[in-house]
Every structure is written in structure tokens, then in C-alpha cells.
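User:
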Amino acid sequence: MSAPVCGKPRVVIIGNALSEGMFRKVIQEHPLSERVDFQMVGGSFDEAIKVAKEYEAFADAFISGASITPGLRRRVRAPVVEVRIEGTDLLEAILKAYAHSPDEEIVVLLYGSPRPVLDDLAQVSDLRIRQVVYNSLEGIRQCVEGLARNTVKTIVAPTLPCLLAREFGIDGIPIYSETTLRGTIEEAAHLAHLHRFQKDLAVRLQAVGDFAPIGIVGTDASGTVTLANPMACDVLGTTSRAIMGKPVEKVLPGLDFTSASPQARPQIVQSVGKDLVVAVRRISADSATTGFVLTIHEARDVSLVEAQLRSRRARVDFAAHKTLEDVLGTSGLIQRVRNKAASFAKTDSTVLITGETGTGKELFAQGIHNASPRARKPFVSINCAALPETLLESELFGYEEGAFTGGKRGGKEGLLELAHTGTIFLDEIADLSPSAQAKLLRVLEEREMLRVGGRELIPVDVRVIAATNKDLAREVREGRFRSDLYYRISVLRLEVPPLRERPEDIPDLFSHFLKEHGPLVEARVQGLTPRVLPMLQTLRWPGNVRQLRAFVERLAALAQDGPIYDELLADLVAELDDAKKTATEPLISRRPGGGPEFQAHPLRRARNLSSDAVTKALIAAGGNKSRAAELLGVSRVTIWRKLRSRGRSQDTGTF
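Assistant: Predicted structure:
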């Protein structure tokens, strides 16, 4: 008998003619009959078990008498509800028997064991009660035959002994009341609903497991395999039947169960000549392990998927992650630039951002994009100086299939197409080739583009933000950059100031970069801040904010092993300042009157500075080390180091 695909939960009542009539009456009057399908079957014990096995495929619960229930529960998976004998039902049946034959002994047939309460009842009343116990269906017949030989006329018993007693001319009074039967069908209906839900859930989970693109193996608490989906069997080169019931360590030799956790951390296991990535997850209930779930992949498949995801993420993660609030600094200069950028964001015009290397031009570009109406659209960035001319054009404008040897089959979208409805940031735009400049001008003028090797114009709606650290006006004058493109991209101009022009922002930037390395490093370096910041604010910072970040990173790396001391700090700052100086001109010349005249030159290397030159500079500066450093074109730290090397670190003068 096949199981129904859907419908109401089904309860099978295994009984006899007498119990069937009693149940039918209760069911007809109960509202559950509209939500649950009750079906009644009968027969002997062996027949009842056979019928139960036939109905098990679709039965969600069974109801049976006390004598059948134990055996039935051992043979079927669905819940079995026993028709229990309640004390009030038993007393009511005894009183009926007494009313029927007041002068006769009341014989009560019970399954399993006698009820002591009936002995107590007999002692406190005038009732003569005798209990007879049976333990099997055959025992019922033996009991009834014996009672018939003793001319017993009435018995109190469950429905099956009552039916058998009638064959011997004995009146049988059933113990069960309508109230008991009503409670029985309600309990069975509840369990049937739960069982149906569990079966449906198991079917859905099985379907998920069968169609899952990964191998799934389930075990019990001891690690014995209880299930394996088709993908797992395929990866392991076996069948579900072959590994069911086996210890999982034999299926996957070398698997470490001690590392199993709810987080399912992966491990590499060799099996059937393959490297497998296996993740083991412990399943727990009430702090007790109830089983394990394993997911299995071939390592080569994982590597392939990872590469595909990395490639896909690189292609689609066109987003600006910075805002204008990320531009650090409180100086009036940077605030004016930030406010100007915010006003530019409200328009859709092209923006040209100029500034030295390391000043944060892309940071402003992302901030303008995120403050604009295009904020939720793509932000695509490309460095025009990082790619050769031919590759740059194909990346920027895309190409059609067959445009050149080695091109992607089907062609490729250009970055301008991918930036459609959003913003494209062209960093180092001065390095665009003449051909690319002409094509970009068409995009800005006509809002359409042509792929490399293509014949069809593609409309694009994109805002262009360009940046350069070169003098574009000079590039135009010298013929390296198209004048028409220059005027088209410089509708709005934003100049990002170098760090040396806003030294008051260095403390904020220093603290921000320092926090990126964690509280321990921050605490070790923080004590040096009052001494290091004045030094940093006097440097020229040719690498600007990028150079400052690198300096803080170097400082943090050294602070990993312990506190930074003054000597090490002085060396770090001196290295930072001296790195960009060259010895190209003498520091000292002579005045017409014979006295020393100091010509500071910013390109003189501090390591070539003589102690004699320092002495003369201090004399000319009246002992002021800051002024002497300015005259020599070096930092105050360099002066301090030179004096320290001569044992004169306690020399007079302000520093």
C-alpha cells in the first residue's frame, strides 16, 4: 500500500468489532474527524501486526489495546497510542457489573498485572472482586474458558475478552468509556500531525541532500555512517549501501574528529586517491553530542570555484568605499577643499583632481561619487599609467571577438560600459595615449563609445572624474595632451593640497594610522607623540599622506617588540627627512666681509653634513637649533644627531 503524497494525517485503529463500534461513535461526534483520517482494522494478534505493517507506509499513528501495543511498537516506526484503562472507567464498569448481578462475584480481567486499588476497594465495600490477569492473546482464551467452567456469568474486561466471553455465554462489560476513547483519539491525532510533519521534513531534507552540489555524510554520536547523499558517494567512489553502518574513520581515513565543532572547520583528507576538503560539524542537543554532519569536496573543485569567485568578485565589486567624511584634517585648507568637493558632488559635470602623489586624489573621487546622486551605482577606477597603451584601450573601451589574437571569446565589456549610470575614475589621465584621448573625448561629447574592433556605437551614461599629478596645462602646451579633452575634463577643478601645506592635520592623520595597528602598538607609541609630532610637522613630506602612513607602519612594526626609545625615534625621523636630500651644492659660502654665509639647499644629504658646518650654522643662528637647521636645509633632528655624536647633546639653545 503506497503512501499518499499529501492530505490529512491518517490514524489506524487496530481493534475488534466491539471496539470499532465504540470508536466510530466517538469519532463521528468529534470535530477531529474533519482534520484527521481515522481508519479501523481488526483481527487476531498476528493479523493485527500484519495489517499494521501493510498500513505503516501511510499511517501517521496507530491506536491499539494493551495486549497488542508492546509488540506493535517493536514492529512499526509510527507512534502507537495505547487505549489506557483509567481508574474512573474501571470503577464505573465494576458498578455496572454489580448492578447487573448484585449477588455474584465480580471478575475483572486485566492485561499484565493486577490493580492493588481493586483489592482496597473490596476491603472497604461489600463488593466481591476477583482479578484475573492475562499476558497474551492466547492467555485471554484460557482465562475465559476457565471462568466459563466455573459458571461465571459476568466479567469486566477490555473489549477483546468481552467479545470472547460472549462465545461462552458470559456477559462482558467493557471498561472503556467515551471520555477515555475521546482522549485517546485526540492524543493519536496530535502525534499523527507531528509524525506527518517529520516525514514531510525528512522527505524535503532528503531531496535537498540528493540534489546538493556537495557531498554530505551523516553519522550518529559514535561516528557510524547513517546517511550519504549521491554526491558524497560519487566523490568517494562508492554507494550508500556500501558505507552505511561503517565507522566514518574507515570511509575517510585520517579524519580528525577531535577538531569537530559547530563551525565546521575544513581539513584535508586523502581518500580513494584524491585530496578531499572535509568539514566536520558536531550536532548537539542539551550539551550532548547526537551526531556529526560532514561536507565533502574535491580539493581541485574548491580551487576552481575559488578562482572563479575571485575573478567574478574582481569584476563586479565596482563600489566606492570611502566618503568625504574619511578625509581627515581640521585645517582651514583641507576643510575648504572638502567643502568644494561636496558642492561638486551635487552636479554631474566632469571633475579634474590635481595634486602631488600620495595626497589622496582617489579618496576625494570616491567621496564625490558617494555624495552624488550616482552613489548607489558603479564606481570604476583605472590607473592610466599602469597599463600599456594597447591593453589600456581594450580595458577602457572593451573589444569585440576577433579584434586581436588571444582575445576573450565573445569579446569583452570595457570599464566604461561597466560604469554605465555610475562614475569612472581615470587616475593619471595625463598618461592616456593620443588614440585613447580621442575616444574618451567622444564619450564625453556624444555619450557613446566604440569597442576595439567594433562597428556599433554603444550608448553610455557615465560621469568622469580624472586625476593627475602632472601640470596638464603644460602637457597641452607641449603637445602631449589634447587641448579639447583638457577643457572637457576640467569643467570643475579640485586641487588637493600637499601635506607640508597643512602640518596642523598631521596629528589627526598620525593618530588615525596608529589606531589601525591595534591598542597595544598605539599604547607603546602614544607616549612619544608629544615629541614626535613637532618633528613630523617640520618635514616636507614629498610622498605626502602616503609617506606618513608608511612611516607610522614602520613605527608600529618596531613597536611590536617593545617601546620605542628616543634614539631609535630620532633615527627614524632623520631617515625620513634625509631620504630625499642630495649633496649638490655647498652649504657654506663666504660673505664679502669674510664671515660665513649659509645657503640652505633642500637637496643636500644630511649624512655629508660636517660637524664644522653645524657649529658655524649654530653661531650664525645665535644658538637656535631650529634656525640652524633651516639655514642648513636639514631637519632639527639632524642637528640634534650631529651634536649628540660629538657629545654635545646638552648644548645651549632652543630645540
